[in-house]
């Protein structure tokens, strides 16, 4: 019980004053006295409670336009002195420093100021110095001091006061200290993001309000998303987003962003199982669905055009989890909302993070996102036969899909429609065989189709299998010491092959 402490004096310095009334009144009833900075002091006194001015404690006024108000040994000595350290105690007596056992801070709203589009000078003034120092000091001395570092901790503090009066245990204080360091590290990360010219692009484990997810990869795993989902999407309908939903949504967005033409795509487990570019949304949907109507069940749908009622009625014939579009006609929404759980998302104008992170072992991997897109000018012919104009369009189309498919990946395309992909196989030959078999099972005629490979061909086996399936043109990165084997085969059998020089592994 030795670690139980009673709060006697609180330093309160909050930017937003709301939400504190009941806490302050309760603390007052428990005999706690207050010391406060200008605006907060006025707020406390307006509640009819006594409050000392921090200026009277320090003997200094607030100076430099409020940049220095609590930064003083009388304040920090009162927080940081170790109650069981003789030297510390002698010094606080010598310098007449009153002890402070509770610190309540609500920091200057830095992120909100940045988001409001304010001028740089206004933003810089919202970098809290005194408040963050108070938080760090009080959290460091959690053995003796309670730190309430943001409004999010008002409720736990109120609960504590209701349960125990002004008494706190070491466990209570340590919990508040942990929360305080989450606030201070999140705050500094936000400031770093502002100064970093790749804004928002780095890993911020400490963002203040992660999005709660329905569950993780499996229902027995809890999960959170550290990001700003609502900046990217408006959810119009459906159940709470899950971890797998987010992975699929990310894959869907990355895929659709490759296409300028009107396109519809269906994804399952992060890979496209159907995609087509067409002159109107109904045709695009129908030809995407034809790619693999079996896998489409329970899939993620994405398009880069408005969803109208006609296509909504077509889509409604199958079960799917999520639909993403830039806009929906009102009558289309009525149709899509018929199923209660369906997640309907409007994609907003908002950039995705240009960096990728992945946790493994005891750390986090970071890499630039694969943002390389190949156009016609990037295609280098490798064979005597050159691809036709139609084949070039299909090769570029296939290359965009294979880039967004799990390696080893092979994609077969005809007339800007995905015929089939082979994905996530340990050998490229297996990927190709899987794709050919799948295309056949959905009645695709591969004569005149094209093949994309996410990495080079070490042997001629893939082009040989492709040729026998009717494929007439191939796109690949090139760069194998054995490129010649595949090129020779294509020359002997009249296939066109182009290389891009860019590998698109996706593990
Ligand atoms: N400069 C200081 O010494 C200082 N001490 C506390 N603050 C902040 O001042 C705000 C409260 O000011 P007021 O009580 O005057 O409204 C709080 O957000 C607190 O985090 C300070 N301001 C910025 O650093």
From TrEMBL:
Catalysis: reaction(s): IMP + H2O = 5-formamido-1-(5-phospho-D-ribosyl)imidazole-4-carboxamide; (6R)-10-formyltetrahydrofolate + 5-amino-1-(5-phospho-beta-D-ribosyl)imidazole-4-carboxamide = 5-formamido-1-(5-phospho-D-ribosyl)imidazole-4-carboxamide + (6S)-5,6,7,8-tetrahydrofolate
This enzyme's EC code(s): 2.1.2.3, 3.5.4.10
GO MF term set: IMP cyclohydrolase activity; phosphoribosylaminoimidazolecarboxamide formyltransferase activity
Record-annotated MGS-like domain positions: 1-149
Domain of life per record: Bacteria
Pathway: Purine metabolism; IMP biosynthesis via de novo pathway; 5-formamido-1-(5-phospho-D-ribosyl)imidazole-4-carboxamide from 5-amino-1-(5-phospho-D-ribosyl)imidazole-4-carboxamide (10-formyl THF route): step 1/1; Purine metabolism; IMP biosynthesis via de novo pathway; IMP from 5-formamido-1-(5-phospho-D-ribosyl)imidazole-4-carboxamide: step 1/1
HAMAP family associated with the record: PurH (MF_00139)
Family membership noted in the UniProt record: Belongs to the PurH family.
PANTHER family noted in UniProt: BIFUNCTIONAL PURINE BIOSYNTHESIS PROTEIN ATIC, BIFUNCTIONAL PURINE BIOSYNTHESIS PROTEIN PURH
Domain notes: The IMP cyclohydrolase activity resides in the N-terminal region.
Protein name: Bifunctional purine biosynthesis protein PurH
UniProt source species: Parabacteroides hominis
Gene name as annotated: purH
């Amino acid at each position: 019980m030795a670690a139980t402490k009673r709060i006697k004096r609180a330093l309160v310095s909050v930017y937003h004053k709301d939400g504190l009334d009941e806490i302050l009144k309760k603390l007052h009833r428990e005999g706690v006295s207050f010391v406060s900075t200008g605006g907060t002091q006025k707020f406390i006194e307006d509640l009819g409670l006594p409050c000392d001015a921090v200026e009277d404690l320090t003997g200094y006024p607030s100076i430099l336009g409020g940049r220095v108000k609590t930064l003083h040994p009388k304040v920090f000595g009162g927080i940081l002195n170790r109650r069981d350290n003789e030297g510390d105690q002698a010094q606080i007596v010598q310098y007449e420093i009153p002890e402070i056992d509770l610190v309540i801070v609500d920091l200057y709203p830095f992120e909100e100021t940045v988001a409001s589009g304010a001028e740089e000078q206004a933003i810089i003034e919202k970098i809290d110095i005194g408040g963050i120092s108070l938080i760090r000091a009080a959290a460091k001395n959690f053995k003796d001091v309670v730190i309430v570092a943001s409004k999010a901790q008002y409720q736990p503090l109120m609960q504590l006061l209701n349960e125990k009066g002004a008494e706190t245990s070491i466990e209570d204080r340590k919990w508040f200290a942990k929360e305080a360091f989450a606030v201070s590290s999140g705050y500094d990360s936000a400031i770093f993001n502002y100064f970093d010219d790749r804004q928002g692009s780095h890993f911020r484990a400490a963002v203040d309000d992660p999005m709660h997810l329905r569950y993780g990869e499996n229902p027995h795993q809890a999960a959170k998303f550290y990001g700003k989902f609502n900046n990217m999407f408006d959810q119009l309908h459906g159940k709470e987003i899950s971890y797998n939903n987010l992975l699929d949504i990310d894959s869907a967005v990355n895929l659709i962003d490759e296409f300028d033409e009107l396109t519809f795509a269906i994804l399952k487990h992060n890979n496209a199982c159907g995609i087509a570019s067409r002159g109107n949304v109904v045709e695009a949907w129908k030809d995407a669905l034809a790619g693999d109507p079996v896998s489409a069940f329970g899939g993620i749908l994405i398009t880069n055009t408005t969803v109208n009622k006609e296509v909504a009625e077509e889509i409604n014939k199958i079960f799917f989890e999520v639909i993403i579009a830039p806009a929906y006609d009102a009558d289309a929404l009525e149709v899509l909302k018929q199923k209660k759980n369906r997640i309907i998302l409007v994609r907003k104008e908002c950039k995705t993070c240009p960096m990728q992170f992945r946790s493994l072992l005891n750390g986090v991997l970071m890499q630039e996102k694969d943002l390389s897109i190949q156009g016609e000018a990037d295609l280098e012919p490798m064979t005597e036969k050159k691809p036709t104009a139609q084949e070039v369009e299909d090769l570029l189309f296939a290359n965009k899909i294979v880039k967004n498919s799990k390696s080893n990946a092979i994609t077969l395309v005809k007339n800007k429609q995905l015929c089939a992909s082979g994905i996530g196989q340990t050998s490229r030959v297996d990927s190709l065989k899987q794709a050919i078999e799948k295309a056949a099972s959905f009645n695709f005629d591969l004569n005149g189709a094209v093949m994309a490979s996410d990495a080079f061909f070490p042997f001629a086996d893939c082009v040989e299998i492709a040729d026998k399936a009717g494929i007439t043109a191939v796109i690949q990165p090139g760069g194998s010491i054995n490129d010649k084997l595949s090129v020779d085969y294509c020359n002997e059998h009249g296939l066109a092959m182009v290389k891009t020089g860019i590998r698109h592994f996706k593990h």
